[in-house]
Amino acid sequence: MISPKVKLDRIDRKILEELQADARLSSAELAERVALTASPCWRRVKRLESAGVICGYQARLDSRKLGYQVTAFIHISLDKNHTQYVHEFEQAVLAIPQVLACHRISGRYDHQLTVVAEDLEAYGLFAEKFINGLPSVKEVYTSFVLKEVKAPANPPLPPG
């Protein structure tokens, strides 16, 4: 099911730009930056949250500073594509903390995972213990990140 597009006016876009740049802004600071008083600004933020445009606030962490020197993209084919098996696979993936992202994709593979590991040896143990043990896994293809050129980011705001 496709979600309906939310209409954003100039002020909504400005609020989103400011929160993307610094989600730690106080309500008063945000209101000042978008040239509103605090109450109307707060109501707009709450409306954007309720509409699902703002779906959370979180700190971005540097995985390398936390000891994760390896980032890998893992493409996985399932041997059983029945809804039940796909659901079991996806539920199992949700329980693995090292999996930063999981996407069901089109093409040769069924899913793409983004994972982190301390080093190549740790990745090998992780793959053996977790990836190879996931339900219905038929084929695994792994690519390692050599250099991060652009980090994951929010989507661009639609033109006004």
Features:
160 residues; alpha+beta; Alpha-Beta Plaits; Arc Repressor Mutant, subunit A; 2 domains
Structural write-up:
The protein is of the alpha+beta class and 160 residues long. It folds into 2 domains: 10-50, Winged helix-like DNA-binding domain superfamily/Winged helix DNA-binding domain (Arc Repressor Mutant, subunit A); 64-144, Alpha-Beta Plaits (2-Layer Sandwich). It has helices spanning 10-21, 27-33, 38-50, 83-94, 120-131; strands at 70-78, 99-104, 111-117, 137-144. It has a 4-stranded antiparallel sheet. Helix 2 (27-33) packs across helix 3 (38-50). The longest helix has 13 residues, at 38-50. The model has no long low-confidence stretch (mean pLDDT 93).
N-to-C span: 25 Å
Considering DSSP H and I runs of 4 or more, what fraction of the residues is helical?
25-40%
CATH superfamily of the largest domain: Lrp/AsnC effector binding domain/regulation of amino acid metabolism (RAM) domain
Structural class: alpha+beta
**What is the count of β-strands?**
4
Spatial extent as radius of gyration: 20 Å
CATH class of the largest domain, anyone?
Alpha Beta
Count of separate structural domains: 2
Rounded mean pLDDT is 93
What is the spatial order of strands in the main beta sheet?
2-3-1-4
Reported by name, the CATH topology of the largest domain is Alpha-Beta Plaits
The biggest sheet amounts to: 4 strands, antiparallel
Order of helices and strands: HHHEHEEHE
